[in-house]
Structure formats: structure tokens, C-alpha cells
Amino acid sequence: MNYSIIGFGTVGKALARAFARKGISTAVATTRSPEALAAAARSIGPTIVPKSLKDALAADVILLAVPFWAHRDVAQALPSWRGKVVIDATNAYGVPLVDLGNLPSSKVIANALNGARLVKAFNHLPAAVLAQDPDVGAGRRVIFLSSDDEGAVATVASLIEKLGYAPVSLGKIAEGGLLVQARDKSWAPLIFQDLFQPEQ
Ligand SMILES: NC(=O)c1ccc[n+]([C@@H]2O[C@H](COP(=O)([O-])OP(=O)(O)OC[C@H]3O[C@@H](n4cnc5c(N)ncnc54)[C@H](OP(=O)(O)O)[C@@H]3O)[C@@H](O)[C@H]2O)c1
Predict the structure, then answer these.
(1) Which is the closest atom of ligand 1 to the Cα of 128?
(2) How far is the CA of 197 from the centre of ligand 1 (A)?
(3) Stretch 83-107: mean pLDDT, rounded?
(4) Angle subtended by helix axes 34-44 and 10-21, to nearest 10
């Protein structure tokens, strides 16, 4: 299984730190050249590898950490999304519902990345919290996930475990997943909830 993070701003870097902490390789990419990302990637760790957007999109599992509407450009950068596991870490906060056809924003992204196996995750915490070690001794920081694809949930839950967090599945995007979907100018109830699962 190989990974890439698309978007290397505050969230992309926080996610890269989580990969680096565990020595797991991941590509990182933006609209800029790999050379432009090299110094920032090096400062996070040797397993963080800048790539072109096209090369990064060859990964099996793609973490999307771009501004919400940028997903449309990312969608165009790959001829087929069939079979790709995409982790949607975006928030469509402030986007009028009418612009989303009144759908949860993750459904809009899933429709644009036609054929992708989309899982919403890593969007509910501020980047500064996400960047911290998820192991606080007495427990592990919770990451919520929601998806309409159970197989993709298993893949992403396993990644979340490998990164040291505790995965908590909320079910389908338009059901339990609504608890983490920002809607227009309101934050869903589980957004910003920094929870820990005690060690068993
Ligand atoms: N900030 C938070 O605490 C937080 C927490 C949870 C979720 N989120 C969500 O996470 C997403 C990213 O937020 P952020 O704060 O990390 O934003 P940010 O700091 O502005 O970073 C956005 C990144 O996306 C890249 N990007 C923009 N358009 C792109 C495209 N078409 N293709 C590839 N890369 C592109 C940008 O690089 P270039 O422009 O150089 O290409 C930049 O690296 C947003 O949807 C936000 O709502 C944010």
C-alpha cells in the first residue's frame, strides 16, 4: 500500500508529520514543483517525498488536504479514479448549500472523483492538534471516519491505527457522517471534538 498527501499547507504538513512520526513513506504534492516542496518536506522527515501532482496521484491511498473547491482541479489531474481510496480531509465551511446541490460536501467530492472509494477523515481537528503526537500515554487521539464503502473504511482504519490514532467509524456519509460535515456556516457537532480512546 502506498500513500500520497495532496495539499501541503497546514493540514497537509500536519498529516505528513503523522506519517514521519511512524517512519511511513508518503508522497506530498501541490500545484508546485517537487523542488519547491523539498525544504519543507526535509524538515518534517526523510519519509516525506515531494512529487509532481501526476506522480503523487499514482498512490493507492490519496489524502486530500486542499481548499474545498480545489478538488475539481485535482479531479481533472487523473484520467480515472476507479479503485483509488481517497481520504477527504477537507471542510466546505462557508460554502452555500445551494452550491453543493444540498449534498454533504464529501458526496460532491466523491461525484467529482468518479469511481474513487471516498472516506471522510482527519477533517474534524484543527491542524495544530492533528500535528501533535496522538499517543498521550493514557490513550490515543480519536479520528472519525465515514464512508459509503465498507472496504475502504477498513483500509483507512488500518492506516489510522498505523499512524497511532484510534479510528471511530460513524457509518455512511449521509447518515452518521453528517456529524463531521461542515454545512454552510455551521460546524457539525463532532468537528473540533478532541477525544481520546483509553488504552485497553
Ligand atoms: N486549517 C485547519 O486547521 C483545517 C483542519 C481540518 C481540515 N481543514 C481543511 O483542509 C483543507 C486544507 O486546509 P489548509 O488549512 O491546509 O489549507 P492551506 O494551508 O491553504 O493549504 C492548501 C494546500 O493545497 C494546495 N493546493 C491548492 N490547490 C491545489 C490543487 N488544485 N492541486 C493540488 N494542491 C493544491 C496548496 O498548495 P499550492 O496552492 O501551492 O498548490 C496548499 O499546499 C481545507 O479544505 C480545510 O477546510 C483545515
Answers:
(1) 3
(2) 28
(3) 98
(4) 50
Span 111-162, pLDDT tens digits: 999 999 999 999 999 999 999 999 988 899 999 999 999 999 999 999 999 9
Q: Which of 10-19, 92-101, 102-111, 131-140 comes out lowest in average pLDDT?
A: 131-140
Which numbered atom of ligand 1 lies nearest the CA of 126? 3
Q: What is the pLDDT of residue 199?
A: 84
Rounded to the nearest angstrom, the distance between the alpha carbon of 176 and the centre of ligand 1 is 25
Q: Which domains does the chain have, with CATH numbers?
A: 3-198 (3.40.50.720)
Residues in the ligand 1 pocket, defined by CB under 6 Å? 6-12, 30-32, 53, 65-68, 70, 73-74, 89-91, 123, 126-127
What is the whole-number distance in angstroms between the Cα of residue 200 and the centre of ligand 1? 35
